[in-house]
Design goal:
Length: 218
């Protein structure tokens, strides 16, 4: 068994992707978040190795040189990057990798993994986005809103778009996208990912042992 799916979740800052991401991680089996690297300093409560790997700019630039990132981008004034090794580790365990990254990163990942599934999370309105950023006590609100207006039109290039109006509903929608991927016959049979089907040993033996008598795609 090898190779799960790569999921890209992008959204403007304040749209709720961290909350949505955390709920997905709790509710979707086989899903693991890729901990990414940033040069910004930790917010209150954020932990190194849990929320991000917080590195200095020098350390980050060295990692770029060594080719350690699957993608990297400058967002606001900081660098952010996805370590290749993290993604490879998750996929090699047959799990799905959740990348919560900005749109620049999303485009880079899609180039390298054309089968990656990209999901754009939209806030219901710009007014609501501003409210959420303000409630969060974010420092760079105007800068983040300006950035959001540049990112939002990119939603049309993603595979899926989900609106985070009612949190539970947004999570359910993304969850159903993820669960239906794991039901793709190609995923189940080509990679021998049978475990989530909870099949009896007898039917498993039939599936593995016999060829289909019609050889057409249905
Ligand atoms: P924040 O500073 O609010 O945690 O994140 C700012 C933006 O950077 C968010 O859109 C977040 O998804 C994105 N981001 C976090 N990690 C990465 C990464 O590794 N690569 C890219 N391209 N964006 C990232």
């Amino acid at each position: 068994m090898y190779g799960g799916f790569v999921y890209i979740l992008s959204a403007p800052s304040g749209a709720g992707k961290t909350t949505v991401g955390n709920l997905l991680l709790r509710e979707v089996p086989y899903l693991e978040k890729v901990i990414t690297v940033t040069t910004r300093s930790p917010r209150e409560g954020e932990k190194h190795g849990v929320d991000y790997y917080f590195l200095s700019e020098d350390e980050f630039l060295k990692k770029i040189e060594k080719g350690e990132f699957l993608e990297w981008a400058r967002v606001y004034r900081y660098y952010y990057g996805t370590p290749k090794s993290e993604v490879e580790r998750i996929l090699s365990q047959g799990k799905d990798a959740l990348l919560i990254i900005d749109v620049q990163g999303a485009f880079q990942v899609k180039e390298k993994f054309p089968n990656a599934v990209s999901i754009f999370l939209l806030p219901p309105s710009l007014g609501e986005l501003k409210k959420r950023l303000t409630l969060r006590g974010e420092r760079e609100i105007e800068e983040r809103l300006e950035w959001a207006k540049k990112e939002i039109p990119c939603a049309k290039h993603f595979d899926y778009v989900v609106v985070n109006n009612v949190l539970e509903k947004a999570v359910e929608e993304i969850k159903s996208i993820m669960l239906s991927n794991r039901r793709k016959a190609a995923f189940v049979f080509n990679n021998e990912n049978y475990q989530s089907l909870h099949l009896g040993e007898d039917i498993l033996q039939v599936i593995k042992g016999e060829d289909c008598h019609g050889n057409k795609k249905v």
